Amino acid sequence: MAMSQSPSQGNGKLYIVGTGPGNLEQMTARAVAAIEDSDVVVGNKFYLDMLGPLIDGKEVVESSMGREVERAKKAVELARDRKVSMASGGDAGVYGMASIVLEIIESGGEDVNVEVVPGVTAASSAASLLGSPLSSDFMVISLSDLLTTWAEIEERLEAAFTLGIPVVLYNPRSRRRKNNLAKALAIASKHLPATTPIGVVKNCYRPDEQKKILTLKELREDHSFVDMHSTVVVGGRTTRIWKVGD
Ligand code: SAH
Is the sign of the CA dihedral 115, 51, 146, 158 positive or negative? Predict the structure, then answer.
């Protein structure tokens, strides 16, 4: 959420790198160059594992999911005098590490040379595997209620589905939040026909990639396929199924 101007002239550098959906070929050339230029790579294990040979021989600082603030502080500290990449899946600025890192730099009054490197976000990766469902205006809403209250999320869903434009749902399901997707689909059903196409893509551009194209009615009946590695694209009023995917 923060914007920054980066005035630092120190020796260190902090790249906040969007590493894309999880396949080296889907990383931007700048993202690869940033990692290559870094002495240290910080990130959660899940994303670091996908960087494979790119991080061989580098100092790696791994941490688990849910320790974002700790990880961001560590990256900022290291970047005072070393070249550091903070790796964050998809685009680091979309529900990723960029805002956390920038806020830590701001609140600590740190003088760090920062570059935010954009990456391919899940909405784009999922859309590319479904055809072209996001070809005009669309919305992105996360169903994670860790940092946003569920009441606010419902308010956003209500507004989005009223517009009848495609809505991309991130964090559609987790072990802790089993019912959020069902609730979101119930809101969608108030505004959209039961035949509205929905694409679910799990693990885009990863070895275990899977996708399903189905209707709103069908997904409401059974969404057990959807997990935390899935992105759900709810079509809008004009979205149509041209060819059913495999
Ligand atoms: N910064 C990331 C999003 C992090 S939020 C980005 O820009 O893509 C985490 C959510 O993103 C997941 O719950 C899932 O909904 C989505 N996501 C991230 N990578 C994905 C992938 N490879 N395939 C499908 N969904 C993905």
Answer: positive
